[in-house]
């Protein structure tokens, strides 16, 4: 039920089981100004599941996460090679409209980053700018409800989003992403700036949201991965011939297997806290 980075080691049974995949990553590598930061990744992301990316600092988790909605395009010097199919289309095809892609593949960042606008406008602004034709009031309420924050904000929709607590701001940002009706949500350490109660609320929210969305989450918190993720990808670094560190996907399997009987020694050592 698991496989490691090398294509020759791919477990085809596992891959075939994931025929419902939303993304199929085929030999993706990422360079920053010519430096190979992430070695060829092969990975399938199953639909309506939560996939966690774990591994030590600098192993390329965020780099790969940003590939799924071409956020690396916005980093000067970043270059992505390989194929990354989103529902059978290579998103690195020059004909792909990356702005449209980012509507389908939304992102929630490490630090909550609400717009300096009202709670209502935080949700309404994006859809309205994109010509949303439906009832905006309903969309705002529905998005806030789905993000499990409606009851806390329904009486102060005109208040500034930035005046909410950190945990509420993060759920507001998730509501903002949901309002764009995405297919996939990318989350880059969404709880790292939150207290344990807010963290738990966001985790519970993710478990709710996976009924409708596919979620890919970078997390440093292994308990979090084991609590929420259906699948876990373990990344590590290796030293190249010039002494430079580069990231690689070491192992991908169900979370249950990753945390009970990982295939590789690297994953086993990381999970048992022996490094990282
Ligand atoms: N914008 C950038 N410009 C240049 N190099 C970058 C950039 N972002 C990341 N890198 C490099 O790419 C490699 C992978 O970084 P990345 O942030 O993806 O790792 P990570 O696993 O998410 O780390 P962390 O857990 O510390 O956030 C590192 O060597 C890093 O220095």
Automatic annotation (TrEMBL):
<dbReference type="GO" id="GO:0035435">
    <property type="term" value="P:phosphate ion transmembrane transport"/>
</dbReference>
<dbReference type="InterPro" id="IPR005670">
    <property type="entry name" value="PstB-like"/>
</dbReference>
<dbReference type="InterPro" id="IPR003439">
    <property type="entry name" value="ABC_transporter-like_ATP-bd"/>
</dbReference>
<dbReference type="GO" id="GO:0005524">
    <property type="term" value="F:ATP binding"/>
</dbReference>
<feature type="domain" description="ABC transporter">
    <location>
        <begin position="23"/>
        <end position="262"/>
    </location>
</feature>
<dbReference type="InterPro" id="IPR003593">
    <property type="entry name" value="AAA+_ATPase"/>
</dbReference>
<dbReference type="Pfam" id="PF00005">
    <property type="entry name" value="ABC_tran"/>
</dbReference>
<protein>
    <submittedName>
        <fullName>Phosphate ABC transporter ATP-binding protein</fullName>
    </submittedName>
</protein>
<dbReference type="GO" id="GO:0016020">
    <property type="term" value="C:membrane"/>
</dbReference>
<keyword id="KW-0547">Nucleotide-binding</keyword>
<dbReference type="GO" id="GO:0016887">
    <property type="term" value="F:ATP hydrolysis activity"/>
</dbReference>
<dbReference type="InterPro" id="IPR027417">
    <property type="entry name" value="P-loop_NTPase"/>
</dbReference>
<keyword id="KW-0813">Transport</keyword>
<dbReference type="GO" id="GO:0005315">
    <property type="term" value="F:phosphate transmembrane transporter activity"/>
</dbReference>
<keyword id="KW-0067">ATP-binding</keyword>
<dbReference type="InterPro" id="IPR017871">
    <property type="entry name" value="ABC_transporter-like_CS"/>
</dbReference>
């Amino acid at each position: 039920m698991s496989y490691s980075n090398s294509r020759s080691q791919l477990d085809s049974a596992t891959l075939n089981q994931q025929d419902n995949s939303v993304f199929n990553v085929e030999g993706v590598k990422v360079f920053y100004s010519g430096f190979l930061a992430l070695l060829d990744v092969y990975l399938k992301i199953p639909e309506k599941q939560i996939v966690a990316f774990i591994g030590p600092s600098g192993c390329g988790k965020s780099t790969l996460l940003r590939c799924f909605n071409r956020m690396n395009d916005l980093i000067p010097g970043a270059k992505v090679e390989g194929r990354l199919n989103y529902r059978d289309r290579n998103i690195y095809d020059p004909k792909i409209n990356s702005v449209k892609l980012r509507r389908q593949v939304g992102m929630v960042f490490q630090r909550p980053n609400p717009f300096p606008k009202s709670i209502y406008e935080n949700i309404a602004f994006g859809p309205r700018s994109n010509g949303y034709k439906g009832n905006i009031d309903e969309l705002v309420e529905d998005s806030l409800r789905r993000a499990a924050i409606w009851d806390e904000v329904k009486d102060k929709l005109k208040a500034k989003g930035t005046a909410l607590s950190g945990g509420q701001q993060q759920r507001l940002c998730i509501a903002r992403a949901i309002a764009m009706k995405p297919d996939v949500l990318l989350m880059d350490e969404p709880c790292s700036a939150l207290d344990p109660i807010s963290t738990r609320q966001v985790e519970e929210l993710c478990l709710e949201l996976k009924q409708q969305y596919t979620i890919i989450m970078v997390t440093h918190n292994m308990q979090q991965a084991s609590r929420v993720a259906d699948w876990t990808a373990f990344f590590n670094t290796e030293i190249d011939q010039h002494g430079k560190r580069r990231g690689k996907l070491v192992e991908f399997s169900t979370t249950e297997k990753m945390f009970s009987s990982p295939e590789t020694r690297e994953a086993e050592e990381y999970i048992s806290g022996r490094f990282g």
